[in-house]
Amino acid sequence: MSNLHPAIQRVTDRVIERSRDSRAAYLSLMAEEADRHRDRNAALPCSNLAHGFAAAGEDKASIAARKGPNIGIISAYNDSISAHQPYGAYPPRLKVYAREVGATAQVGGSTPAMCDGVTQGADGMEMSLFSRDVIALSTTVGLSHLMYDSVALLGICDKIVPGLLIGALRFGWLPAMFVPSGPMPSGIPNKEKQAVRQLYAEGKVGRAELLESESKSYHSAGTCTFYGTANSNQMMMELMGLHMPGAAFVQPGTPLRQELDRAAIHRLAAITREGNDYRPLWKCVDEKAIINAAVGLLATGGSTNHAIHIPAMARAAGVVFDWTDLDELSANVPLLARVYPNGSGDVNHFHAAGGIGFVIGELLKAGLAHADVLTVGGQQGLNDYAREPWLDGDKVAWREVGANGDPEMLRTVDNPFMADGGMRLVTGNLGRACFKTSAVAPERWTIEAPCRVFADQQEVKDAFTAGELDRDVVVVVRFQGPRANGMPELHALTPILGVLQDRGYKVALVTDGRMSGASGKVPAAIHVSPEALGGGPLAFLQDGDVVRLCGHDGTLSTSADITGRNPAMAPPAARGTGRELFAMFRHFADDAEKGGSAMLAEAGL
């Protein structure tokens, strides 16, 4: 790409060089597997094949004779998660769409689908990050039947998209595409929701009022409308070219949504090895695609969880990407969107204003993204994703996005909200961590104050209730890393810390846990690595030690001499709610900067 920004080129070249051996090993495995599984029917003995299509009904004859491609569906459907509830009706429809073009489709497998919104602050949150490994493993189990020529991945939310992609990448000789179901309609204004949460934290309203408010916000089928991890997932799949262009934020149950689903299945039938436009996943997900995903995350102020997920997804494709890369990209990619919780409007407003298509167009114009990537959804690389879908009669078509529809939500590269992407690497004698500066007012980017050290969220809540945090304070919550307790999100702390900040105190959070894609206005150094368990620096902090966090100069440090201290003892691993069954994942997990995965670590990836 002739006009590629020098920083994007520099980071890309560094990632390519760093990944040379691991990427070569991955490509070699994919080439070997593609050759070994070239003839799908011949690879399966007759008895095995008969088992595979025994319940395929009217599609049995076509699958047996291999009259057309057979599309495998991996679904994360459940109806406890609003975003995934629409998927219950998808397989019958997708099979019809496949038959329209002489193909067939089968559900190859299902995966779990946890919602962090349901498990926030509860026991299940300690299994959330590792559910990504379980989802990846479930995906590989579903695809291990070797019955398929391409793959439709039905998943949207937090750990589900990364898990599906990690699993699918081990079958990278198959074309694969994500088929989203879209966001729910907008509910009550976000500021109203946030205000009620803070009132509840202060004890000024009760549970009934809080539940009524939350129910007006999360009220129907579809993805939650704030710009957290789920919607950041959708943005990244667009930037990686793994959707039909513009599919991310079209609402469920609409004619356009249905036609995008149809187009996805038709496309998956057209890009198999048997056709003349073969687009295997291993060719689509390369170093440039990973860089594009990170650039999109930064340009839109996306979820901090992807500082963990991008390295993990990259590893599955043999690509090594770390926080130094993310930090350098952030310093050069401007913030082009403010979507709640970073702004007032939600993803529906974002989409209506021009959405992802507008952002991609701006990035390409400035040379901030790689246009020359292989995508599943078009012929012109990432340029296809700078357009928006619409219904031309009863068929989906794509058109230019046009001018920005809301300058309070979207900006051009020439007039951004911030000159950088607002995802800073902070380092020092307390380790390496991420600080999402785009969500925090610049005057709050630096705090230096005595710390108060806690081992879990409940201790923080108790201290807040007792009035012990009514002062300038750095709240340190440790033993929250992958090996300690599965690295839960600490989103329940957001209202408490917000109240303290609104009372006029200088407040920050430092933790080796996660803080969520919905984290907001309080400065926070999260994902601190190395984690406290095993001797990370946070284990040596004591109450009253002065801690400095600065988003301007990238500092995370203490002025206290912690070198001669004994580390604090970690709480015993929790049991109950099935958490004890995840002991293996905790034991083998690697650092957050590598993705916090036990599965990838033990696989040698």
TrEMBL record:
InterPro entries: 6-phosphgluc_deHydtase (IPR004786), Dihydro-acid_dehy_C (IPR042096), DiOHA_6PGluconate_deHydtase_CS (IPR020558), ILV_EDD_C (IPR056740), ILV_EDD_N (IPR000581), IlvD/EDD_N (IPR037237). Pathway: Carbohydrate metabolism; Entner-Doudoroff pathway. Pfam families: ILV_EDD_C, ILVD_EDD_N. It is an enzyme of class 4 (lyase). It catalyses: 6-phospho-D-gluconate = 2-dehydro-3-deoxy-6-phospho-D-gluconate + H2O. Gene3D superfamilies: IlvD/EDD C-terminal domain-like. [4Fe-4S] cluster binds at residues 157, 224. GO terms for molecular function: 4 iron, 4 sulfur cluster binding; metal ion binding; phosphogluconate dehydratase activity. Keywords: 4Fe-4S, Carbohydrate metabolism, Gluconate utilization, Iron, Iron-sulfur, Lyase, Metal-binding. Its cofactor is [4Fe-4S] cluster. GO terms for biological process: D-gluconate metabolic process; Entner-Doudoroff pathway through 6-phosphogluconate. One of its GO terms (cellular component) is cytosol. It comes from the Bacteria. PROSITE patterns: ILVD_EDD_1, ILVD_EDD_2. The keyword Lipid metabolism does not apply. Binds 1 [4Fe-4S] cluster. Its EC number is 4.2.1.12. Residues 409-595 form the Dihydroxy-acid/6-phosphogluconate dehydratase C-terminal domain. Residues 69-380 form the Dihydroxy-acid/6-phosphogluconate dehydratase N-terminal domain. Catalyzes the dehydration of 6-phospho-D-gluconate to 2-dehydro-3-deoxy-6-phospho-D-gluconate. Belongs to the IlvD/Edd family. This is Phosphogluconate dehydratase. The gene is edd.
